[in-house]
Amino acid sequence: MGLYDTYLAVRHRLHDGNPPEHVAIVITERDLLADGAFDTLSAALGWAFEYGAERVTVSVSVLDAAVVPTLVRELRQVDAPRRLVVRGPEDAALDEAEGATEPESGDGSGPGNRLRDARASGARASGAKASDAPIRITVGLGGKAEFAAAVRELAADVEAGDLDPESIDAADVSDRLVFPEEPDLVIKTGAERLSDFAIWQSVYAELYFTDVNWRDFRKRDYLRAVLDFQDRQRRFGR
């Protein structure tokens, strides 16, 4: 770690403000096409847990739906410091435990893949949920589509007589989202538009935009985002 990175890390440790417990990182499919992009992601996940995060959500927005299966497959191979689950648009309607996975290497037929499948089966048997994974990655799953799916599920429950429409509240909506937890900090690299990532969950999140492109994102850039968060006084809409 360089001298400047060390300086930022010391500032972080001595800061009176709490670091974000749940960090969300918003990137694009184009970001992942750059050389070293997956290594940057692996490093960023490590930095997040090193500097106080307990959960990390990564949203990958896509323009070409045809690339989603490839991205999902590649992201499931990312070297991550904690249990990781990857979800694409087709996974939104699945049982949450169905996609539970851990970062293991493998080409789809080797022992790494079989071990991953065995662990996923074990997670289903034990009742573990994908939303409980410390690292969650969504690919091409926009907030509008996620919210619409939750509304459809609510409507189906009402029609089936399992839910009183007069009793529906925010918790009922949250319970039907793919990843219901609210991030504390949302980081967007490249100074581009935010997209419709987690429009329900991130309503009170602190947003941090950096001009640094994803391929150039370094530990110092992550620490700057965390320090900026620690300097803020959160109002939660008040």
Describe this structure in words.
- Residues 89-127 are annotated as: Disordered.
- GO terms for molecular function: ditrans,polycis-polyprenyl diphosphate synthase [(2E,6E)-farnesyl diphosphate specific] activity.
- It comes from Halorubrum kocurii JCM 14978.
- Keywords: Transferase.
- Residues 92-105 have a biased composition (Acidic residues).
- This protein is α/β, with parallel strands linked by helices and 238 residues long.
- It has a single domain (3-95, 131-231), classed as Undecaprenyl pyrophosphate synthetase.
- Helices cover 38% and strands 13% of the residues.
- The chain is built from eight helices and six strands.
- It has helices at 3-14, 29-33, 37-50, 68-75, 111-126, 143-159, 170-174, 219-231; strands at 22-28, 55-61, 84-87, 135-139, 185-188, 206-209.
- The chain has a six-stranded parallel sheet with strand order 3-4-2-1-5-6.
- α1 runs parallel beside α8 (219-231).
- The longest helix is centred in the middle third of the chain and has 17 residues, at 143-159.
- It starts with a helix and ends in a 7-residue tail after the last helix.
- The model is unreliable at 93-127 (pLDDT under 50).
